[in-house]
Design a protein that fits this description.
Blueprint (H helix, E strand, L loop, with lengths): L7 H138 L2 H13 L4
Helix pairs in contact: 1-2
Length: 164
């Protein structure tokens, strides 16, 4: 039972030692511990505010990033649209130029055919004229000789004459 009942002398010395330890702690350790806790609290608050600022910057950068991406997509669509229009314009111009060249070729061929036709007709006229002169010459020679022979001569001349 001696352990359970407190001794007044022990209590006295315990209170004195506790007071001394409390005084020493208050004098030397309490202020540095409180200052360390305050510094820790300030650093945590600064870290939280820095994290909030960083979060806001990330959100701002993300919004800027999304804006840049949407702008790039819009520019890409615009460039593709312009490229398609240019391609269609070039194709249309090429078709038009090909049609014009074809028309020129056809017109040139028509002109050549027409000039060859005119030349051929001229040549035929020339040959007909020469043949007519020859026939007239022969007829006149025969006419001078005899009238019966004229008919025979005309028939013979017509038989000799091959129209090519």
């Amino acid at each position: 039972m001696g352990l359970v009942t407190p001794n007044p002398g022990t209590i006295f010395w315990m209170v004195i030692i506790f007071g001394i330890v409390l005084f020493i702690l208050r004098k030397f350790a309490w202020k540095p511990i409180l200052n360390a806790l305050k510094d820790r609290e300030i650093s945590i608050a600064n870290a939280l505010s820095s994290a909030d600022k960083a979060r806001q910057e990330v959100a701002s950068l993300k919004a800027d990033h999304e804006k840049i991406i949407s702008e790039a997509r819009r520019e890409k669509d615009l460039i593709l649209k312009e490229a398609k229009e240019i391609r269609e314009k070039i194709v249309a111009e090429a078709k038009e130029k090909a049609m014009q060249e074809a028309q020129k070729s056809i017109e040139l061929a028509r002109q050549q055919i027409e000039s060859e036709k005119v030349a051929a007709i001229g040549e035929i006229k020339k040959q007909v004229a020469e043949l007519s002169v020859l026939v007239a010459e022969k007829i006149l020679r025969k006419e001078l000789l005899a009238t019966d022979d004229q008919e025979k001569f005309v028939n013979d001349s017509l038989n000799d004459l091959n129209l090519n």
